[in-house]
């Protein structure tokens, strides 16, 4: 196991690196109220976090990351603009991969600034890139906002768009919904029989679960309305499929996505933001000609990000998780801001993994 003293020493140096860039060091409690995280992620979070109960404070959760408590702290008391850094333990259950650490040190840098989001994106990426210098990592980038814009602009019902938006971070479920809404997947016979029945509630089946009969009847009516709606057009489906397959260096990816925008013009605003970010990264000295952009990147592990996303990987060690990750989370500030909001972007690093890679390279 990695020497803890070494890890803490590197974490302190990384935090100092961010303090020199203008960040204020902050602390957050290790025990976090579970209610906030459950509201954000739903019950799925229980499978990834350690939850306990307190007679006075209710359900508590060992801190699964720093971003949510830092956002809460800023939205309650922070001035604008603001930059924060932190270092400390986070806790993640690893039931499906017992070889991965369930407790480790995380160091992060967060920017709350509404003046120039593209410049803030580039600032966070470039500072983390500098902190990882010499480790021979592959950087991957993406932008969840492009896919979100594509979904929000589809010529289909609001209910269908809401369903797709909920499952953007679950690619298989998202794909299944697209096939259904596009008329490519046949309706299961049991559902077809239910919707065709004059009185579905009279069908002789047991009522299971916690839904009331009224809620079940409402759900059946929603399914009937969905079945009667026109399918998403083949042009839009093909555009989405092409969008999701884009994986090139940043400038070529933008060029490819501009072609996709001929059929999905709703993504042009998001692509303008990608273009502004490319310019800002170049201004920071980042070689965007060698920087990968994947339109689907971040869809399986970055649930509160809604724009720019990035990660750094040790390609010679595919067994390791990302060494650093980050992205933009404007929507999270709205959710936690009690009516207030501010554009925000940040990233985190794993000093223990950085040391492991350095040692292996000697």
TrEMBL record:
Residues 264-291 form a coiled coil. One of its GO terms (molecular function) is glycosyltransferase activity. Gene3D superfamilies: Bira Bifunctional Protein, Domain 2. Residues 9-351 form the Aminoacyl-transfer RNA synthetases class-II family profile domain. Keywords: Coiled coil, Glycosyltransferase, Transferase. Signal peptide: none annotated. SUPFAM superfamilies: Class II aaRS and biotin synthetases (SSF55681). Homodimer. This is Histidine--tRNA ligase. It comes from Ruegeria marisrubri.
